[in-house]
Amino acid sequence: MANQKNIYKPLRARLTEVIEESPLIKTFVLVPDEEFSFRTGQFIELSVDGIGEAPFTPSSSPLVTDKLEVTVMKTGYVTDYMHKMKPGVFMGIRGPYGRGYPVDSYSGKEVLILGGGCGLAPIRSLLYSLEHVKDKLERVILCYGSKTPADCIYKPLFQRLNNTEKFEAYRTVDKADEEWKESVGVVTNLLNSIKVNIKNSVAVVCGPPVMMKFGTIRLLEMGYEDDQIYLSMEKNMSCGLGKCGHCMLGEFFVCKDGPVFTYKELKDTPDIWK
Amino acid sequence: MHYLSIDKEEWDHTLEKLLLSHNVFAPVNNDYSQDYELITAESIPEITYNKPKPATPLKAFFLPVRENVTVSRASDKPRIIIGIPNCDIQALGLLDEIYLDTDFDDLFYRSRRENTILIASDCFGIQEHCHCTSYGIKPFSSEKADLAVAQMNGQIIIRVLSGPGDRFINTFPHLVPVTDKNIITAIEREHKATEKLLKDKNKGLPDYFETGLLVNDAGKKIWEKYSLKCVSCGACTAICPTCTCFLLIDKPGFEKIKQMDACQYPGFQLVAGGEDPLSELPSRFRNRYLCKYVWKPARFSSIACTGCGRCIEACIGKINKNELFMELV
Predict the structure, then answer these.
(1) What are the structural domain ranges in chain B?
(2) pLDDT in tens, A252-262
(3) Which of A63, A81, A97 is the last residue in one of the domains?
(4) How many domains are there within chain A?
(5) What ipTM did this prediction achieve?
(6) Which residues of B touch A2 (CB under 8 A)?
(7) Is A260 part of a structural domain of the chain?
(8) pLDDT tens-place string over residues A191-241
(9) pTM, full prediction
(10) CA-nearest residue of chain B to A92?
């Protein structure tokens, strides 16, 4: 048994930096003890020693293998602990797990991305991957919504994307402050002024369930086909191995069959937005 | 399929010798029915044969309720489990598909599986809620176990079902092929009689496939009605031979405890953001049915309910799933 891989045992990773993205969101930079690679959209199980483990999709580039970044909203038991952590401590990583974004199949297409709140974390990783293959892409449009300007994460990212050929990035907030000069309203409002060649496009949606639901509905209204819409599903992925049952969504184990699904794959499954 | 036989006394004597090198588990009678016990030289004569299922499902031998899965296990003594009903043998199919999956092989499950000789026992007779034949399962094993045994006329009659079973049984002395056709006829008569009892008892109960269709189409009201007496205790899932869900609990040193869990417990699907698709009791209750009769069959080739009826026996609210299905028909 000693020579075979124990699927439950985490790999140790040193926390080297904690970046504050917003009052509730921080990015944790981790250097694993061994080289660690993942495909964009796949997730890891990240452990806080003795406290708990939770699933996160890395927000860093899959092309970087000596470290990875995980962007985490303070929203529960494990993440409360994480937000108190300082660089230098060790964390545990299992994975990578699941099926990520099929970036190769986006070649020659316009990629429309809808992100909400901390859902921008997996999208940032996807954007790094898309930037890497931008010569093969037609266009990439990012529409991002957050509650307030203070909740907007990755502020430098938007500036960089808007200075990158073929990329454009738009932001909106539910509630603006005096300094906010961009859009106000839900993220789907941004789609009103965007012209996309839908036939030659794919759409990616990642965010809170309510945003995923209304984002998908809006994309369908725009004319996107069910198999052109990619959803990153949020479930209680506990083992990551397709065994423990916590993330079951109909017949799917979200941890193994997803977390990225096309809407076509899920649309007949009950309660997908819950 | 060929039959072998051995005198019951000789069988018991050989089991006693095997106790030196193996842990032997087998059902013995208790105050309520019968259940597996670790057999000693003294308890060998108490082993029951030909009786319907022991109280504990077979999964308990392969999926402990609680286990540290980050430390290496010391090698166990090889195990022999005698007296397994076919409903439990068939249930192992789903466990194998989940835990010996080619992507993520669970070494803890595998080592126990490879370390165990499975000796099935034919059921001569039924318990109140047995309904294996409704789901296409016979009350005797002809595959997936290593051996199948029945007691008849002072002899143990053996059917060899696997290569490891063949190698194992060939170490037994005084084993002879059954030449007396009357013995085989008598066993087959018992098989048929048990099947008839099951069929008569469960007349009108939909088969596994049809149950899936009924469950899938069932409206909210039936789940609300039957879950009224459910207290989310999880007894149905704990006792089910195919329910395998678990939770990983973190301990210092990045150790993880794997503990059996159940979709019937509140919070099973709760995510950190607060969403919980199974927050209401009727949806939690319904989830078990959808999982067993609709979702697992869509994904796995093994059956996810083998008709053992333990969930009906174990329910403190006296909820009978078969009554629910009959109402849906």
Answers:
(1) 3-201, 208-328
(2) 999 999 999 99
(3) A97
(4) 2
(5) 0.91
(6) 72
(7) no
(8) 999 999 999 999 999 999 899 999 999 999 999 999 999 999 989 999 999
(9) 0.93
(10) B254
